[in-house]
C-alpha cells in the first residue's frame, strides 16, 4: 500500500435536477393557459372595456360558436344551464357572473342568455371582451 492515498471528495451532480425542473417548467407553461375559466371562445373586441376586478372569482357562463352552453367548463343544454344558475343563485345570491360569448354567436342568442340570468336575479352580470387597443 502506498503511503499517500487520495481522499475522494463527493460531488453532487445537479444536471438531472436541472433537467427535471426545466421539464416541469415547460409543462406548467403549456398547461396554465388552458386553465382559464369557461369554454374556449373567441371573444369580441371593444374599444374601452371596464377594468377587470382580480379580487372576484365569478362563475363563468360561455356560449361557444357552435351554440353550446357551458357553466365554467361543464357543457349543458340551455334548460339545464338555467336550472344550475337558479341553484347557484339560491346558494350565493350575490355571486358575480361573467358571460363569455364567441364573437360568431348571434347577438339575439347572447341577449337571450343575458336576460335569463337577469330574470334569475343575479345583481351584476359582466360581458367578457378583449381590448381592441391591445390587439
Fold and architecture overview:
With 135 residues, the protein is an alpha/beta fold. It has a domain of 72 residues: Nucleotidyltransferase, domain 5, CATH 3.30.420.270. The protein contains 3 helices and 7 strands, in the order H-E-E-E-E-H-E-H-E-E. A 5-stranded mixed beta sheet has the order 4-3-2-5-6, covered by helices on one side. Strands 1-7 form a two-stranded parallel ribbon. A hairpin with a 2-residue loop joins strand 3 and strand 4. The longest helix is centred in the N-terminal third of the chain and has 17 residues. The chain starts with 14 loop residues before the first helix and ends with a strand. The mean pLDDT is 78. GO terms for molecular function: transmembrane transporter activity.
How many DSSP helices? 3
Strand order of the largest sheet: 4-3-2-5-6
CATH topology of the domain at 59-130: Nucleotidyltransferase, domain 5
Percentage of residues in strands: 15-25%
Average pLDDT score? 78
User: Globular, elongated, flat, extended or rod-shaped: what is the shape?
Assistant: elongated
Question: What share of the residues lie within helices?
Answer: 25-40%
Derived structural class: alpha/beta
The CATH architecture of the domain at 59-130: 2-Layer Sandwich
Number of strands: 7
**Contiguous uncertain segments of 5+ residues:** none
Biggest sheet statistics: 5 strands, mixed
Note the gap between the termini: 76 Å
Organism: Corallococcus exercitus
GO molecular function: transmembrane transporter activity
Pfam families: ExbD (PF02472)
Keywords: Cell membrane, Membrane, Protein transport, Transmembrane, Transmembrane helix, Transport
Amino acid at each position: 500500500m502506498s503511503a499517500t492515498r487520495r481522499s475522494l471528495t463527493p460531488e453532487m451532480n445537479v444536471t438531472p435536477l436541472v433537467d427535471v425542473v426545466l421539464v416541469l417548467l415547460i409543462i406548467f407553461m403549456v398547461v396554465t393557459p388552458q386553465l382559464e375559466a369557461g369554454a374556449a371562445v373567441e371573444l369580441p373586441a371593444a374599444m374601452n372595456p371596464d377594468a377587470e376586478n382580480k379580487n372576484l372569482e365569478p362563475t363563468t357562463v360561455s356560449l361557444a360558436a357552435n351554440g353550446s352552453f357551458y357553466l365554467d367548463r361543464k357543457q349543458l343544454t340551455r334548460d339545464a344551464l338555467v336550472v344550475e344558475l337558479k341553484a347557484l343563485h339560491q346558494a350565493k345570491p350575490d355571486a358575480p357572473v361573467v358571460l363569455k360569448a364567441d364573437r360568431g354567436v348571434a347577438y339575439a342568442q347572447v341577449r337571450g342568455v343575458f336576460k335569463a340570468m337577469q330574470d334569475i336575479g343575479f345583481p351584476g352580470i359582466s360581458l367578457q371582451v378583449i381590448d381592441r387597443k391591445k390587439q
